């Protein structure tokens, strides 16, 4: 044995630059410039895999800072590129590293490891391999979620991870119900949360309650209808109490969950009737038109926008359809179930969501997009406009916008007569 290797700890900046410099440039086929040099994709892929192997090794390092940087670098790579074969060959090693970091790491390291576990399952999809990963990590995640001595951030990340991994891999209905029960035990504490003498609710665990509620709602979308009915009966009368929470994100999470529950209830029973409908719509309308001066303008704008849609869903059974573009394809989000699922995976994948919608078989199955659309280099080139054409278009649009604004801003413009 020679001298022990002296590993320099990675900073977050160094780790992300090293990884992303090799995966962001070719994560999107359209990112190449038409006049750029030809790239040897095989050599680039080998270079990326070599670096990723190094990051996997560093997840076992003695330095917590090095381990966390390695986890973040792996997360960046997994979210920006499909690495199915690479991951399949090393899934046991990755699972062991994640388990060790969640068990023994501090708050930030546990959060990074939980995020990587989500991406690992997203990459592998709903197969036997993912089930084995979840069998290993599921009990560890549940233990952290239920551990009152663990940091709130770690519990929050593990609750989200638990919901997403269960959504991806679970064919066992018993495991699904068990996971939902674990999450219910967390967010239902927000129903009974006492207020102090000043009327301000405790916010210590609010972020945890929000994550548990959203993860539970995601799992509800794949439950059998008889179970959905039971959950609706249990929670539909209690959830409105969360609309009075001081935390904006909790109010929004509760509102969107209510809209989804009403959507599912009406699917199971076209004549569904909610007894306290008048009181609920009054609450929702107040939030959709909230003008309290003590709230920030940005928060009020966001709240009003969300609750206008929630009110329409509850009162009129209506949903404002959204369109998502990725490459040459379009996807329409036309219901609350689809919106909840899309928002969850977008939160995990970040800027890599569009790329995964194009190339990830699991996500395409979830959103019923069919097999990936294969485009050759010639087709991609015809879809792109040249840099010069893009410049001309942007220049013309800028001039037109400036002229339109100038007319409105001209002090000599006729503003009406006063009598």
UniProtKB/TrEMBL annotation:
Residues 19-315 form the Interferon-related developmental regulator N-terminal domain. Residues 1-38 are annotated as: Disordered. Coiled coil: none annotated. Keywords: Developmental protein, Differentiation. Residues 360-413 form the Interferon-related developmental regulator C-terminal domain. Signal peptide: none annotated. It comes from the Eukaryota. GO terms for cellular component: nucleus. Pfam families: IFRD, IFRD_C. GO terms for biological process: cell differentiation. Interacts with PSIP1/LEDGF. Belongs to the IFRD family. This is Interferon-related developmental regulator 1. It comes from Calypte anna.
């Amino acid at each position: 044995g020679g001298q022990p290797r002296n590993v320099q700890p990675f900073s977050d900046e160094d780790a992300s630059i090293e990884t992303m410099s090799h995966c962001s440039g070719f994560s999107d086929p359209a990112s190449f410039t038409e006049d750029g040099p030809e790239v040897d994709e095989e050599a680039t892929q080998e270079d990326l895999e070599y670096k990723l192997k190094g990051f996997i090794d560093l997840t076992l390092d003695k330095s917590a800072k090095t381990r966390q940087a390695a986890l973040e670098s792996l997360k960046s790579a997994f979210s920006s590129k499909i690495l199915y074969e690479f991951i399949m060959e090393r899934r046991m090693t990755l699972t062991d590293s994640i388990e060790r970091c969640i068990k023994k790491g501090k708050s930030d390291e546990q959060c990074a490891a939980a995020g990587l576990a989500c991406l690992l399952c997203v990459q592998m999809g709903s197969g036997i391999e993912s089930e084995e990963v979840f069998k290993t990590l599921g009990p560890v995640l549940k233990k952290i979620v239920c551990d009152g001595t663990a940091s709130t951030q770690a519990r929050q990340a593990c609750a989200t991870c638990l919901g997403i991994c269960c959504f991806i891999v679970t064919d066992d209905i018993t495991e699904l119900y068990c996971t939902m029960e674990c999450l219910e035990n967390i967010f239902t504490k927000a129903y009974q949360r006492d207020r102090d003498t000043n009327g301000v609710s405790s916010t210590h665990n609010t972020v945890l309650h929000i994550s548990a509620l959203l993860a539970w709602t995601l799992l509800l979308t794949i439950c059998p209808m008889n179970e959905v009915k039971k959950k609706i009966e249990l929670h539909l009368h209690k959830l409105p109490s969360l609309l009075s929470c001081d935390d904006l994100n909790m109010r929004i999470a509760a509102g969107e969950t209510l809209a989804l529950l009403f959507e599912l209830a009406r699917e199971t029973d076209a004549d569904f009737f909610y007894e306290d409908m008048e009181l609920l719509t009054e609450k929702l309308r107040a939030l959709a038109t909230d003008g309290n001066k003590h709230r920030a303008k940005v928060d009020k704008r966001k709240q009003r926008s969300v609750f206008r849609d929630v009110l329409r869903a509850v009162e009129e059974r209506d949903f404002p359809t959204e369109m998502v573009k990725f490459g040459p394809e379009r996807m329409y989000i036309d219901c609350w179930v689809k919106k909840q699922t899309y928002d969850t995976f977008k939160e995990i994948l970040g800027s890599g969501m569009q790329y995964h919608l194009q190339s990830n078989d699991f996500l395409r199955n979830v959103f019923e997009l069919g097999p990936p659309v294969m485009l050759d280099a010639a087709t991609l080139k015809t879809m792109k406009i040249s840099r010069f054409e893009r410049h001309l278009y942007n220049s013309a649009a800028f001039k037109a916008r400036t002229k339109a604004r100038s007319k409105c801003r001209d002090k000599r413009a006729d503003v009406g007569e006063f009598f």
